[in-house]
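Re: the 152-residue chain
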Amino acid sequence: MKVLALLGCHVAEQAKLIAKMSQQIAPDYRVKCFRINALVGAGRLVALRHWLAAGVPPDTVLCVLGVSNIHEFNILHRRGAMFGILPGSLPSLLTRNEIKINDRFIFIAGNPDQLETAAKRRQFHDPASAFSCVLLNENKRSRKPAEAIQWA
Protein backbone atom coordinates (compact mmCIF):
# COMPACT_ATOMS: atom_id res chain seq x y z
CA MET A 1 0.00 0.00 0.00
CA LYS A 2 1.32 3.42 -0.96
CA VAL A 3 1.39 5.69 2.12
CA LEU A 4 2.80 9.20 2.46
CA ALA A 5 2.72 10.90 5.87
CA LEU A 6 3.32 14.64 5.86
CA LEU A 7 5.28 16.27 8.67
CA GLY A 8 5.72 19.96 9.38
CA CYS A 9 3.89 23.04 8.25
CA HIS A 10 0.23 23.61 9.03
CA VAL A 11 -2.30 21.00 8.00
CA ALA A 12 -3.90 23.57 5.65
CA GLU A 13 -0.56 23.84 3.81
CA GLN A 14 -0.27 20.05 3.77
CA ALA A 15 -3.73 19.86 2.18
CA LYS A 16 -2.70 22.37 -0.53
CA LEU A 17 0.34 20.29 -1.39
CA ILE A 18 -1.80 17.15 -1.57
CA ALA A 19 -4.29 18.90 -3.85
CA LYS A 20 -1.40 19.80 -6.16
CA MET A 21 -0.15 16.20 -6.09
CA SER A 22 -3.62 14.95 -6.87
CA GLN A 23 -3.79 17.16 -9.97
CA GLN A 24 -0.32 16.16 -11.13
CA ILE A 25 -0.80 12.39 -10.91
CA ALA A 26 -4.34 12.25 -12.31
CA PRO A 27 -5.86 10.43 -14.17
CA ASP A 28 -3.53 7.45 -13.63
CA TYR A 29 -3.44 7.66 -9.83
CA ARG A 30 -5.60 9.08 -7.06
CA VAL A 31 -4.96 10.51 -3.62
CA LYS A 32 -7.00 9.64 -0.55
CA CYS A 33 -6.45 11.86 2.50
CA PHE A 34 -6.72 10.89 6.13
CA ARG A 35 -6.61 13.92 8.42
CA ILE A 36 -5.52 12.41 11.69
CA ASN A 37 -5.41 15.89 13.24
CA ALA A 38 -9.23 15.98 13.14
CA LEU A 39 -9.30 13.31 15.85
CA VAL A 40 -8.34 13.43 19.53
CA GLY A 41 -6.83 11.08 22.07
CA ALA A 42 -6.67 7.33 21.60
CA GLY A 43 -9.19 7.62 18.76
CA ARG A 44 -6.33 8.85 16.56
CA LEU A 45 -4.42 5.57 16.82
CA VAL A 46 -7.55 3.43 16.44
CA ALA A 47 -8.59 5.34 13.32
CA LEU A 48 -5.07 5.21 11.86
CA ARG A 49 -4.87 1.46 12.32
CA HIS A 50 -8.33 1.09 10.77
CA TRP A 51 -7.42 3.16 7.70
CA LEU A 52 -4.20 1.21 7.19
CA ALA A 53 -5.93 -2.15 7.65
CA ALA A 54 -8.73 -1.20 5.23
CA GLY A 55 -6.17 -0.33 2.57
CA VAL A 56 -6.70 1.58 -0.63
CA PRO A 57 -6.95 0.49 -4.27
CA PRO A 58 -3.67 -0.08 -6.13
CA ASP A 59 -4.06 3.18 -8.07
CA THR A 60 -4.31 5.24 -4.87
CA VAL A 61 -1.85 6.76 -2.44
CA LEU A 62 -3.01 7.29 1.15
CA CYS A 63 -1.77 10.64 2.47
CA VAL A 64 -1.85 11.03 6.23
CA LEU A 65 -1.98 14.64 7.43
CA GLY A 66 -1.33 15.89 10.95
CA VAL A 67 0.99 13.16 12.28
CA SER A 68 2.20 14.51 15.60
CA ASN A 69 3.41 11.78 17.96
CA ILE A 70 5.80 8.87 18.11
CA HIS A 71 3.02 6.27 18.29
CA GLU A 72 1.48 7.46 15.01
CA PHE A 73 4.93 7.59 13.45
CA ASN A 74 5.75 4.02 14.57
CA ILE A 75 2.50 2.62 13.14
CA LEU A 76 3.16 4.33 9.80
CA HIS A 77 6.82 3.33 9.77
CA ARG A 78 5.97 -0.34 10.34
CA ARG A 79 3.57 -0.14 7.38
CA GLY A 80 6.38 1.12 5.15
CA ALA A 81 5.18 4.71 4.80
CA MET A 82 7.27 7.44 3.26
CA PHE A 83 7.54 10.65 5.27
CA GLY A 84 7.41 14.03 3.59
CA ILE A 85 9.00 16.93 5.47
CA LEU A 86 7.47 20.24 4.41
CA PRO A 87 8.94 23.77 4.54
CA GLY A 88 9.14 25.57 7.85
CA SER A 89 10.45 24.54 11.20
CA LEU A 90 10.82 20.83 11.85
CA PRO A 91 7.97 19.28 13.77
CA SER A 92 8.74 18.45 17.41
CA LEU A 93 8.42 14.80 16.45
CA LEU A 94 11.75 15.17 14.61
CA THR A 95 13.52 17.63 16.90
CA ARG A 96 13.39 15.42 20.01
CA ASN A 97 15.86 12.97 18.40
CA GLU A 98 13.46 10.06 18.87
CA ILE A 99 13.40 9.40 15.14
CA LYS A 100 16.32 8.85 12.82
CA ILE A 101 15.81 10.36 9.40
CA ASN A 102 16.54 7.74 6.74
CA ASP A 103 15.86 7.09 3.06
CA ARG A 104 12.10 7.04 3.68
CA PHE A 105 12.17 10.78 4.44
CA ILE A 106 11.95 13.31 1.62
CA PHE A 107 11.72 17.11 1.51
CA ILE A 108 8.60 18.25 -0.34
CA ALA A 109 7.71 21.78 -1.42
CA GLY A 110 5.93 23.59 -4.22
CA ASN A 111 9.34 24.92 -5.30
CA PRO A 112 12.89 24.59 -3.93
CA ASP A 113 13.06 28.22 -2.77
CA GLN A 114 10.59 27.35 0.00
CA LEU A 115 13.21 25.17 1.70
CA GLU A 116 15.53 26.90 4.15
CA THR A 117 18.90 25.28 3.47
CA ALA A 118 20.97 24.34 0.45
CA ALA A 119 21.10 20.74 1.70
CA LYS A 120 17.30 20.54 1.73
CA ARG A 121 17.07 22.21 -1.68
CA ARG A 122 19.43 19.56 -3.14
CA GLN A 123 17.02 16.87 -1.91
CA PHE A 124 13.89 18.75 -2.99
CA HIS A 125 10.86 16.97 -4.45
CA ASP A 126 7.80 18.63 -5.90
CA PRO A 127 4.47 16.86 -5.24
CA ALA A 128 4.62 14.69 -8.38
CA SER A 129 8.22 13.68 -7.69
CA ALA A 130 7.26 12.87 -4.08
CA PHE A 131 4.58 10.55 -5.41
CA SER A 132 7.21 8.85 -7.57
CA CYS A 133 9.31 8.26 -4.44
CA VAL A 134 6.30 6.68 -2.73
CA LEU A 135 5.66 4.49 -5.75
CA LEU A 136 9.31 3.36 -5.90
CA ASN A 137 9.28 2.66 -2.16
CA GLU A 138 6.17 0.50 -2.51
CA ASN A 139 7.61 -1.38 -5.48
CA LYS A 140 10.82 -2.03 -3.55
CA ARG A 141 8.89 -3.23 -0.48
CA SER A 142 6.59 -5.53 -2.42
CA ARG A 143 9.30 -7.07 -4.57
CA LYS A 144 10.05 -10.61 -3.55
CA PRO A 145 13.59 -11.92 -3.68
CA ALA A 146 14.34 -13.69 -6.93
CA GLU A 147 14.51 -17.44 -6.69
CA ALA A 148 17.88 -19.01 -7.33
CA ILE A 149 18.30 -20.33 -10.85
CA GLN A 150 18.92 -24.03 -10.88
CA TRP A 151 20.62 -25.47 -13.92
CA ALA A 152 19.60 -28.91 -15.11
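Residues 2-76+105-141 form one domain.
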